[in-house]
Amino acid sequence: MMMNKLLLATLLALPGTALAQTAPAPAPAAPAAAPKFTLDTPIQEIVADAQGKAAIDKNLPGLIGLPQYDMFKGLSLNQLKAYSDGKLTDEILAKTAADLAAIK
């Protein structure tokens, strides 16, 4: 019993052991700003913006003038692709996506 008290007193008298020091983790980089518009944005939101409308008109001329526009304006270009009978190709969508991504 006396030995336990002596051991405890000795341990308490020892200076604390230094904890491993590590540099603080760097703050995470700010995420890249998400593009304002993507191929998943509803078409009506894209064409409500002048630059978005210009991108649509450039890559998909006549799309917003179609009589069916009111029926599909709530769809995204990715959703509309399924109904386009192959007219919305991956190439056209890639060009449109690049133009939309450039809009800030």
Would you give an account of this structure?
This protein is an all-alpha fold. The protein is built from 6 helices and no strands. The longest helix is centred in the first third of the chain and has 12 residues, at 2-13. The protein is elongated. The mean pLDDT is 85.
What's the short version?
With 104 residues, the chain is an all-alpha fold. Helices cover 46% and strands 0% of the residues.
Percent of sequence in beta strands: under 5%
Largest sheet, in brief, is:
none
Helicity level:
40-55%
Average the pLDDT over all residues and give the rounded result.
85
Task: Give the tags.
mainly alpha, 0% strand
Q: What is the secondary structure topology, with strand pairs?
A:
Blueprint (H helix, E strand, L loop, with lengths): L1 H12 L29 H5 L2 H10 L9 H4 L4 H5 L8 H12 L3
